[in-house]
Amino acid sequence: MFVVDHKTLRLSFNEFHELTIKDMPEYGEYCLLELKDGNYTAGEWHPASNKRKVAGMFLRGTADTVDAEEVARWHSLDRYDLTDSLGKEGVNWINIGREEEEGDRNVQFEGFKLIADKKYPKEEQFCLLIMNDGALAAGRWNKWRNGGGSFIYSSALASHSWEKVWAWTPLSVDKFFAMELEQENERKREKKLNKNPVADLELFKYGTDINTYYEKALEKLREEFSWATLPMMKKAIPVWQIAPLHGKYVFGHVSKSYYDDSDVVTPWTEGTTADEFIDFLCGYTRDKVAHCNPEERFKFGTDINVYLKMAFDNVKKDYRWLDKKMLKKTWQYDIRKVDGDLEFVRKYWNDSEYSVYDVESAEQFIEWTESDYQNVALRENTVVASYSPHFGHIELHGWNLESYVFCKMKSGDYKVSVTAGDRTTGGSRDFFITPGCFEAKTYEEFLDRYLEIVPEHSFGLGKKDLLPDKKLQKFLGY
Fold it and tell me: Which domain, by its residues, includes 266?
């Protein structure tokens, strides 16, 4: 790595260019910019088509540009390599351009910090960079949540990773960094205010323990729903808390900020007294409690095997090859007490790891379990032949149809696999073509039944596309 002392290093930029029709940067050239207000920034030059005057913009990031009219002078960053100078001991002054420029024609930058020392800029700070390969660059610091970060320098989040940067020094404050500084100052002010929050006596006459308010709401709910419990009420997400905001306690939802992991409090604003909040809690949790009736959820008892047998028998009617050995390869289920209430749970790798199935009825749990059993049945049935109908461009609610394949499986049954996506994401689904479809006497009647399972408006191909396809008709046995 370079041997110069970054603490004493100064870069002296000479050979600035006036931004004129005869002296503009090359298209895409990255430049240090002196603005007409005296500030310094940088950007990638994108000229406009107008050749009669200087027009265009310097890109600094997505929706982050500097208009040509704001720029007084520019200096290329792309045309220099400082490797030789940075590799010499005792160097503390490097001229970028001809040395004879003096006075206000010369601009110097110092105060460099090493990335290797984990000295990072503040969020949104735009900086001049010396890269590990000796090149010059610039960018706006974007901190990563897991440590480190990148310097965004152009649109579409084009960035220099921190690992490619040797040293940096800040350029002038711009509106984005100023906004971030103000937000940071606001966070500091908020933290100071919230050290000793005060409680409004009307709003918190029952104290500042949120469970007290939930319990008072529970007493009212039990007049209508005898089975109501606190855990049932707290299934209504998000759960209400008592938290400090602007130096006062409030009832609110508390979430984590995506940017700095700090608490974000959204206060309750529908009343001004404790009793009004308790009434609000009753309404907020009522629907969830109403659908947690244990008599509905566990109408077939508390033996999980009863529910699993029902799901298995229902799936077995159509997925005739399914056997119980296959079910060992999918989720395992149980009924157990969670926070004092009976719950359907889906277990993971061991008994101590599970998630709660928040279902409203026994029938809903059986239906969800059937879906898991159907998926494992399809995975266990090997595909022996396939056919893909021809189709052109088909857009599905913003996604493009990428694949539509009919598959014949080892058991002699059929399924269809559909894949759709956009430029950044996508997904696939398998649909079992139930035996009832094949009870149709004609291919056209078969399609009528099939398209109830895989409808055209959701998955792209309809009767007009599939009916003329003689190869598909033959593949399906018609």
Answer: 210-292
